[in-house]
Design a protein that fits this description.
Elements (H helix, E strand, L loop, with lengths): L2 H13 L7 H39 L2 E4 L3 H12 L4 E16 L4 E9 L3 H4 L1 H6 L1 E7 L8 E5 H6 L7 E6 H5 L13 E11 L3 H6 E5 H4 L8 E6 L5 H12 L9 E4 H4 L1 H39 L1 H9 L4 H31 L2 H25 L27 H22 L8 H7 L1
Parallel strand pairs: 3-8, 5-7
Antiparallel strand pairs: 1-9, 1-10, 2-3, 2-6, 2-9, 4-7, 5-8, 6-7
Helix pairs in contact: 1-14, 2-12, 2-14, 2-16, 12-16, 13-17, 14-16
C-alpha cells in the first residue's frame, strides 16, 4: 500500500471546497471546542484542588507524622529523621482546640498549634504558604506570650497587632473556678498578637492560631508530634517504611504511631478525586457527541463516493488502502481539531487572571462611558465591575494549574475520538464491489 497517494486523496477530500454541508469543518470545530473547554476547566479545577491540598499538607497535616513522643526524645528523633533519604524537614508541634477571646468580648473556637520559634527555618515550605499582612509583623514566637492569628479570625474578634487576647483550653471552659484569670494551671493565658497571616485556605484563615510550643504544653497534656515533610509527597509509603525502621524500638518510641497524609486526609482527597473524575466524564461527553457526528459524516461520505472508491479499487487500489483514505480523513480532522483547541486552551488556562482582568477592563470602559453620559442628565452612575469583588468572594483571582500529562491525555481524547469514528464508518468500503459500482455508473 502506497501511503502517499492515500494521504493525498484523504487531504483532497477534507480541504477541497465543499458544495454541500461543511461536515469536516464542523467536526474540527466540535473537537476544538471540546479540547479547549476541557483543558480550561480541568486547569481551573486543578488550581483550586491543588491549592487546597498544598495548604493542608504544608501547613496542617504534613506528609508524615510520628508520635506522640516524650519531649526529651524529640530532638534526637528529629536528627534521626533528617538523616533518612527523601525527608526534607521535621518539625515538632502540639495541637489542641481552644477558645480565643478578644479584648472587647469577641470570641471564637480555634485550632491552636504550638510550634518552635525557629519553625520557619525548619520548614521553609510552611513559611512560604504563610503570608503576613502589611504591618502585621512576622513569624515571632520567641516570647512565650506571643501569638499569630489568622486574618479573618483577627477581624472577627476585633484585634490587631499588639492587641491582647485570652486563650482558653476547652476543659477549662467547663471547669469550676476563675476561667478569666491568667493562670497556666487554670487553663487560660493572655497573649499579645505579633502577627496576622493568611494562607489562602478559608478554613485556616478563620480559625487557626500559632503559639510557642512550650506555652502549648500548659494547655495540652499530650506529648509533641513530629510533622515530617518529604521531597516528594507521593513517595510517602516508601518513606514511611524507612521512618519505622529508623525509629521503632528506640527509647521513647514504644507507643509512637506513624501515619501518612493518605491516612488522615483520605475522605477529603477521595472526594476531590471523585469530583475531578466526574467533571472529566461530563465534559468528555463532548467528544462522544463529536465522535458520533464524525461517524455519520464519514459514513455518508463513503456512500456518496461509492463511484470514486469503486474506480480506485478497479485501477489497483486495495480494499485496505481505500478504507485508509477515510481513516486518514478522521486522523486529519482529529489532529486539526485537537491542535486548534489545545493551543488557545493552554494560553487561556495559563493566563486566567490576565484573561479576567482584560474582561474587567473592557466592561469598565463601557461603564465609564455610560456614567459619563448619565452625568449630563444628572442620572445615577454604575459602580465599577469586578468579577471577584472582595466584598462578595474570599478569593482574589481564579487559580489555574496545567498538568502536562492531563493536557496530552485531553489532546489524545480529541484525536482518537475522530480516528475511531472514522475507522468504524469506513467499514462500508469493504462491502462495495467494484464491478457492481462501475456497471451502474
Amino acid at each position: 500500500m502506497n501511503i502517499k497517494w492515500v494521504w493525498y486523496i484523504a487531504a483532497r477530500y477534507i480541504f477541497k471546497k465543499q458544495k454541500k454541508t461543511p461536515s469536516a469543518a464542523l467536526s474540527i470545530l466540535g473537537i476544538a471546542t471540546g479540547v479547549f473547554a476541557l483543558i480550561v476547566i480541568i486547569a481551573v479545577m486543578n488550581g483550586f484542588q491543588l491549592s487546597f491540598i498544598e495548604s493542608i499538607l504544608e501547613i496542617s497535616s504534613y506528609h508524615l507524622r510520628a508520635g506522640p513522643l516524650p519531649p526529651e526524645y524529640t530532638d534526637d528523633a528529629r536528627t534521626a529523621l533528617l538523616s533518612v533519604p527523601g525527608i526534607e524537614a521535621a518539625v515538632p508541634f502540639r495541637e489542641f482546640q481552644g477558645l480565643v477571646r478578644g479584648r472587647w468580648g469577641g470570641q471564637q473556637a480555634v485550632v491552636v498549634r504550638g510550634l518552635p520559634p525557629d519553625a520557619p527555618a525548619m520548614d521553609t515550605a510552611m513559611a512560604q504558604r504563610l503570608e503576613f499582612e502589611d504591618g502585621s509583623g512576622c513569624f515571632d514566637l520567641k516570647n512565650g506570650r506571643n501569638v499569630l492569628l489568622s486574618a479573618v479570625l483577627a477581624r472577627r474578634i476585633g484585634v490587631g497587632i499588639d492587641s491582647e487576647i485570652t486563650l482558653f483550653s476547652i476543659p477549662s471552659i467547663f471547669s469550676v473556678g476563675d476561667a478569666e484569670g491568667d493562670d497556666e494551671n487554670s487553663g487560660s493565658m493572655v497573649f499579645t498578637v505579633t502577627g496576622i497571616f493568611t494562607t489562602g485556605f478559608y478554613e485556616f484563615d478563620t480559625g487557626w492560631i500559632f503559639i510557642n510550643i512550650d506555652s502549648a504544653a500548659a494547655f495540652s497534656e499530650t506529648d509533641p508530634v513530629l510533622g515530617i515533610k518529604l521531597k516528594n509527597r507521593f513517595h510517602d509509603q516508601r518513606a514511611l517504611e524507612l521512618v519505622r525502621k529508623n525509629l521503632e524500638g528506640k527509647p521513647g518510641f514504644e507507643s509512637a504511631k506513624f501515619s501518612s497524609w493518605r491516612d488522615y486526609n483520605r475522605s477529603f482527597f477521595g472526594a476531590l478525586r471523585t469530583e475531578k473524575l466526574f467533571m472529566f466524564i461530563l465534559v468528555g461527553l463532548i467528544f462522544i457527541v463529536v465522535g458520533l457526528n464524525i461517524y455519520q459524516a464519514q459514513r455518508r461520505a463513503v456512500l456518496e463516493r461509492r463511484e470514486e472508491t469503486g474506480l480506485l479499487r478497479a485501477i489497483g487500489g486495495g480494499e485496505r488502502a481505500v478504507r485508509m483514505i477515510f481513516v486518514f480523513d478522521g486522523a486529519i480532522i482529529g489532529l486539526s481539531g485537537a491542535a486548534a483547541g489545545l493551543i488557545p486552551g493552554l494560553l487561556i488556562a495559563g493566563n486566567i487572571p490576565r484573561f479576567f482582568t482584560i474582561i474587567e477592563i473592557i466592561v469598565n470602559f463601557f461603564i465609564n462611558i455610560f456614567n459619563l453620559i448619565a452625568g449630563f442628565f444628572n442620572a445615577g452612575g454604575v459602580r465599577d465591575f469586578a468579577i471577584f469583588s472582595p466584598a462578595v468572594f474570599y478569593i482574589k483571582e481564579i487559580p489555574s494549574r496545567i498538568i502536562p500529562g492531563e493536557a496530552v491525555m485531553i489532546f489524545m481524547f480529541g484525536f482518537l475520538s475522530a480516528l475511531f469514528a472514522a475507522w468504524f464508518a469506513s467499514r462500508k468500503v469493504s462491502r462495495a464491489r467494484p464491478a457492481e459500482v462501475l456497471r451502474y455508473e
